[in-house]
From TrEMBL:
UniProt-listed Enzyme Commission number(s): 2.7.13.3
Transmembrane regions listed in the UniProt entry: 20-43, 159-182
Keywords: ATP-binding, Kinase, Membrane, Nucleotide-binding, Phosphoprotein, Transferase, Transmembrane, Transmembrane helix, Two-component regulatory system
Protein name: histidine kinase
Reactions the enzyme catalyzes: ATP + protein L-histidine = ADP + protein N-phospho-L-histidine
All residue ranges annotated as the Histidine kinase domain in the record: 243-453
Subcellular location(s) per record: Membrane
GO cellular component: plasma membrane
Gene3D superfamilies (alphabetical): 1.10.287.130, Histidine kinase-like ATPase, C-terminal domain (3.30.565.10), Sensor protein qsec (1.20.5.1040)
Organism: Chelatococcus asaccharovorans
GO MF, one example: ATP binding
Stretches assigned to the HAMP domain: 183-235
Amino acid sequence: MNEAVGDGRRGSGWSLRLRLGLWLALAVTALWLAAATVAGLVLRREIGEVFDSALQEVAQRVLPLAYAELLSRDGGSATQHMAPIGPHREYITYVVRDADGRELLQSSDADLMQIPRGLPPGFHSTERLRTYTEAAVRGTILVTTAEDLGHRRAAVRRAVVALIWPLVALVPIALVGVWLSVRLSLRPVITFRSAIEERGRGNLAPVAAVGLPEEIAPVATSVNALLERLRGALEAERGFTANSAHELRTPIAAALAQTQRLVAELPGGAPRERARSVAVALKRLSRLSEKLLQLAKAEGGGLLAETPTPLAPVLRHVIADIDRLTDRGEDLMVEIPPDSGLVCDLDPDAFAILARNLIENALKHGTPGTPVRLRLADGLFEVSNGGPVVPADRLARLIRPFERGPTGAEGSGLGLAIVAAICRGAGLTLDLASPIPGEADGFRARVRFAAVPQA
């Protein structure tokens, strides 16, 4: 079973930086495409006007030349073809006809254009051609200029492509620019978020709100107010716990002392046995009250220290105290590497409670005569003891209050619940295993915490 506690989860959605960068890049791309589309429509109209003007100008220039050419003829009626001057592509062709439609003069590529006859003066469009016809000498001479509409469409297409192709280079540049701009703009927000995440493990200091945008500044004020109220509540709870511990221990200890004195003064018999039973019950009540106070402290917060603390001295002190109270120090096999230098931000008192409960639990429920192994190294604290295998279904319930394993030893069933509560509150990981990995039986509790090498 793996009990991971205090593990803050980030939202599974996209980050604000990614959303802003993506939407801004898409907006720039859409606006560019819309502008290119509008520009293409305007270009098509302007290019059409330019080419129409060219058709008209060619017709007007050819007309007097054609008239002069016809006057200089010697009476031949054959169509005269104007020879091209060098190889070239003729985009605008022309043909000169008389009133009866006979072709008198034409450009070199006019046959390929197949300019229709009988066109009225002015502009005219067919499925393939755009033409302009100019009449002279009272309609006896007609000059028709023609252009392939495919040429116009190709010109418009090339112009639009020339507007769009920079978009291929613009989009990556825009993405990078938008990403950098958003990242720089949101840097105070990211710092604010990181500060709040740090407060999640017990640090209740106010969050700095320097440089936050106007929309986020009220959030920082509210968070700081909430942290202040939470800190006051935790301090009040810690004070109540400490006072309760003192107020409960004192009368219970006094009652136990008086009961033990009564046992010593009473003669043998039923009254003395009843007094002894009362003393045993008071001892059990004393242990139970202590465990309940430890559980209240574990579940109440305040489990992290402001500065990291070495754990090895705390563990040695706990072991010495257990040996003094139970005289079972020889049953403990302790492994603390001298060069481990292990420090942690777990409060020393909280770690002492955690270690004491794990060690007492192992001594109480372990196989008699089998040593309890303790190991504090490599970011781990392990306590292992011999004993019968705990079924997997019961193993998962041992961290619940008052839940006990297959043992006949006395106990309240709160030890592992206290350890689990401390792990949850401090962001540690508690792992219980039975049998011990690599062995046939036994029980192992392992606590994993974020360790920092000691300076």
